[in-house]
Each structure stands twice: as C-alpha cells, then as structure tokens.
Write a structure and sequence with these properties.
Elements lengths: L6 E2 L11 E2 L5 E2 L21 H7 L1 H7 L2 H30 L11 E2 L4 H12 L8 E2 L4 H29 L2 H5 L2 E3 L3 E6 L2 E10 L5 E15 L6 E7 L6 E2 L5 E6 L11 H6 L3 E10 L5 E8 L4 E3 L1 E3 L3 E3 L4 E3 L7 E3 L7 H10 L12 H8 L3 H17 L1
Parallel strand pairs: 7-15
Antiparallel strand pairs: 1-19, 2-3, 4-5, 6-8, 7-8, 8-12, 9-10, 9-11, 9-13, 13-14, 16-19, 17-18
Length: 388
C-alpha cells in the first residue's frame, strides 16, 4: 500500500441506527429521526379534526399529494361537474315538456334525453360548440344555469392550473438537486479536531444566501414508562454563509462545550445520537426559499479521514469531478477525544523561561504588555551592571 493514502467510498445509507446497548444490557434498534433523503420519520396519530384541517387548507393538501391522486381528483371534478349540470339541464327539459312534444319550442335545442343533456353540459363547459345543441330564449332558468356553469368552469380551470404549476415548482424537487455527502468525517484542522461534511449543488445555476446549520439529536428513553425525550443541541459552524458555486466542506470545530468534545472514537461507536444537517438557500432563478436536509448516525461518521479533492483548475475554468463527491482519504488522527487531544497538545508545548525584571524600564514594558521589549531592557540592564 503506497504513501498511506487509501480511498474510501461513502458508506451505504440506511434508515436504521445500529444496535446500541442500554443500561440493562439489552440491545435496542432505533429508527432514524431524519432519513437520508431529508424526510422526517414521524407518523402523527390522533390529530384533532384531521380531515377538517386538510379540507380547510385544500390548496396545500393537493400540492402535497401524489400526482396520480391529484390527476384522479381533477378528472373527477370535471366529470362530476358535467354530470351535475347535465342532470339539471335534463330536469329543465323534462319539466318544460321537450321530451314529450317534439313540436314544442324547446328550452335547449336538440336536448330530448339525458344523454343529450350530458353532452350539452360537456360542450358548454369545455366550449366545444358542435353547432347542434344550443340555448333558446324561452327559458330564463336554463340561461341562468349555463351562466353559473361557465363561471364554475373558469374557477376549476384556474385551480387545476395553479396547483399543477405549484406542484412542478415545489421546493422539494429543487432540494433533490442539492446533496450532502453520504458520510461525515473527523480530522484535524488548524490544530483542533473538527467534524465536517460536504454539500454540493448538482445544477449549474447559483444560489443566494445559503446558510448551513447542524444539530445533534439525542434520545433518552425511560424503560419503565416507555417515554422518549428528544434533546436538541446546536453545533457552531465556521463560515456558516456559503455561496454554493462549487461543492463545499462544512466544518464544525470541536471545542469545549460542544456535544462531541469529550467523545473519543471508542465512545463514538457506543453512542446512538443523530447528527442532522441542513442547508437553507434561495434559488436565483425562481426566488423560492429551499432547504435540503440529511442525517448522520455515529456509524456514518468516519474517524481520521478527509474528503478527497474534486476541483481541478484549468486555464479557462474550474472543473468539478462529482464522481469523487463521497470519496475520502485516510489521514493520521489520534483516537482521543478533543478534550484529551487538547490536554496532550498543551502539555507537549515548550514552557517559557521565567522573565527576571532587572530594571524599571523592563517593568514598564512588562506592564504595557511588551514582553519582548521588557526582555531586551532587562538584558541591557544586566549587561551594564556586569560592566560596572
């Protein structure tokens, strides 16, 4: 194996967190709180007036449902409206006597059966106008019904077009073109242990005001009551605002007070927390606010690895190789916690020699914070005393 650089492909995504040992030495298998695709693994139950809430916000309900359900709903809305007004036109023709007396001046021409009434309703609402069936001036009630049907038809067409456009321009579709790396890594940056992950946009157009966020979600279960407490802990991120023109590595420096500060590699493999990361941004083409999310379990956090470089600079542009988006390279990182690493690092630093103050000038410089000048003044005074 050459030069110690070994490539590792991204780990496989799974909706299950690895089994962890509880206090009573039992193995428990937990589900993800946030799936890899960003959806929340939650099923609401016993919601008060659930159907009323869906009907009250019918526009959002139709935007969120599947395409096949939406198309079926719209097809039924058209067919039922044709059928409803066809029945009304048939009743009008029946009460006016158009069915019994063909020589009578009809309310609606060529409507002498239910089939003809349904076809007249369809032709009126879709503005086909074959030329056989039409209104007469004998029945004001039929004229009023045709007017109402035309107005309702305009509302149905507007509603259908609006929902179809909103569904195609949904933020979820745009969020699928922004992806996170399949795994997070822990390595050393600027002398500190850091947790990092990669985010990239697979489209060419840029974004506006991209912001990265991260939270550690911990689960505390009570074996007696079965209650689960969910604790959210925010992670500080360096350079939170990102212009995602090229894939970017988001870095969290593991400092005192952070959830991972006292966690070594051995401790990490025993934990059952979940790292939820998100990237919120505005698309410069549509101006719509989007958010992409994913989560990492402890088994998906790779210790002692860095993401492989995927940007190459040419004479004309920057080339990004997305085949390396999830690839990492192994780097030397001690299997210590950030706390133990900091203690070891500071203990190995050379201690400063004690500074002897031999003159008033050196004392003044030391009070002013100029250690170097104080040392020079003290040395100069010592030399003069030696000459005397």
């Amino acid at each position: 194996m050459n030069s110690g650089k070994v490539q590792y492909s991204g780990v496989k995504s799974s909706d299950n967190i690895q089994s962890v040992v509880t206090d009573d030495s039992c193995y428990s298998k937990k589900k993800r709180y946030v799936r890899k695709d960003g959806s929340c693994n939650m099923v609401p139950r016993h919601v008060p007036e659930k159907w009323l809430l869906w009907v009250t916000d019918i526009f959002t309900t139709l935007v969120e449902i599947r395409w096949r359900v939406m198309l079926l709903t719209f097809a039924l809305s058209y067919i039922l409206s044709w059928l409803f007004f066809g029945i009304i036109f048939w009743i009008i023709a029946l009460t006016h006597g158009d069915m019994k007396n063909p020589n009578n001046e009809p309310c609606i021409y060529e409507v002498r059966s239910f089939t003809a009434a349904f076809l007249f309703s369809l032709e009126t609402q879709t503005t086909i106008g074959y030329g056989f069936r039409g209104m007469s001036e004998n029945c004001m009630i039929a004229i009023i019904v045709v007017t109402i049907q035309d107005v309702i038809s305009v509302f149905i067409d507007t509603f259908v077009i609006g929902i179809a456009v909103a569904k195609m321009a949904s933020a979820r579709k745009r969020a699928q073109t922004v992806g996170f790396s399949k795994s997070a890594v822990i390595s050393i940056h600027d002398g500190h242990l850091c947790l990092s992950w990669r985010v990239g946009d697979f489209r060419r157009n840029h974004m506006v005001e991209g912001t990265a966020n991260a939270q550690v979600i911990e689960f505390q279960a009570n074996n007696n009551t079965g209650k689960v407490d969910i604790i959210y802990k925010d992670l500080s991120i360096e350079e939170r605002s990102v212009i995602l023109a090229t894939p970017t590595t988001i870095v969290h420096k593991i400092l005192p007070g952070t959830p991972l500060y006292k966690m070594s590699l051995k401790d990490l493999r025993k934990e059952s927390f979940e790292l939820v990361v998100s990237f919120t941004y505005t698309d410069d083409c549509t101006g719509i606010l989007h958010q992409t999310r994913t989560s990492y379990t402890p088994s998906e956090i790779l210790w002692g690895q860095n993401f492989q470089e995927m940007i190459r600079v040419t004479r004309k542009n920057y080339r990004v190789d997305y085949a390396l988006f999830n690839h990492t390279v192994k780097v030397p990182v001690p299997e210590l916690s950030a706390e133990e690493y900091d203690i070891k690092k500071y203990s190995q630093q050379p201690k400063h020699k004690p500074l002897h103050i031999c003159s008033p000038a050196a004392a003044v410089e030391l009070v002013n914070g100029n250690n170097l000048e104080a040392e020079k003044a003290s040395t100069s005074s010592a030399v003069q005393e030696h000459k005397l």
